[in-house]
Design goal:
274 residues; alpha/beta; five-stranded mixed β-sheet
């Protein structure tokens, strides 16, 4: 004879008390990535330096993405006579070291005169893609300002940003933000900087998590209030991945970075690695 199942007891809440709903804990997710700039493969000892730095970045943590911020190859030197070889050296080094880790390269001033070869080896000079590991919630945007001005296509990308996503943006020349210590000749003009900030729709400005730039052969960062309307956007300069050494100490290096999600928000942190 089968026993009858006992009826489940209902939880009795004392009079005057309310049931406290169970709150699901927030799931924190971290995506590690690395940011290189100005490896200048083809100049001096840059290829050897780059080949020394890149495996360190791959072997540190669990990198999901690599950013290369322009002047990746010294392509414009000697009227571009060796551009093909320099691009090939850069790409062969990257693909053999990164394996299946995705990457994207922006264009620098030393590559501007060899655009067809840049696109042949490194893809589009500007665009937007899903940032790996974020299920499409964070977009990576790379722009072309190789000659010190943003191209019309780059400005159009900025104008089409919206508040459905978060953004990490990369381009070669640093913005002229208040307090920047990069040499003035290696910083965008005030007018071009204003053109960049003004192009982004107001509703998307608090979704710009971080802006990575290069060209100045220096590490610099400003972590808040880089421009009115952008109180939480972090701004970085990283141009020390080749034989154009960082000043004043002459070090070479890159950023180890991480993108952290918690609930519906995201933040970016970046740390210098040598």
């Amino acid at each position: 004879m089968k026993r009858q199942a006992r009826p489940k007891r209902k939880r009795v809440i004392p009079a005057g008390q309310q049931a406290v709903p169970r709150v699901k804990p927030r799931v924190t997710q971290t995506v590690e990535f690395a940011v290189f700039g100005d490896s200048h493969v083809g100049y001096g000892n840059s290829l050897s330096i780059f080949k020394g730095l890149l495996p360190k970045a791959v072997g540190s943590g669990n990198k999901r993405f690599f950013i290369f911020g322009g002047d990746n190859a010294q392509a414009g030197a000697d009227h571009g006579n060796n551009a093909n070889a320099y691009y090939k050296d850069f790409k062969d080094t990257v693909t053999s070291t990164l394996g299946s880790i995705p990457y994207k390269a922006s264009m620098g001033n030393w590559e501007a005169s060899t655009r067809s070869l840049f696109t042949q080896y490194l893809g589009a000079v500007s665009g937007q893609m899903n940032f790996p590991g974020t299920q499409g919630k964070v977009k990576y945007v790379w722009l072309d300002c190789a000659l010190g001005q943003f191209t019309p296509a780059s400005i159009t990308l900025l104008r089409n940003l919206d508040d459905r996503y978060f953004y990490i943006i990369d381009f070669h020349w640093p913005l002229r933000v208040q307090g920047i210590t990069v040499e003035s000749s290696h910083v965008l003009s005030a007018a071009e900087t204003s053109r960049f900030f003004s192009a982004i729709p107001v509703k998307a400005r608090d979704k710009v998590l971080a802006i990575f730039t290069h060209h100045g052969h220096k590490f610099y960062r400003k972590l808040s209030n880089i421009n009115p309307g952008y109180p939480r956007t972090k701004f970085f300069v990283c141009g020390c991945s080749g034989d154009y050494k960082c000043k004043p100490d002459g070090n070479m290096g890159y950023y180890n970075a991480k993108l952290t999600s918690s609930g519906s928000g995201y933040k970016v942190d970046a740390y210098i690695a040598h």
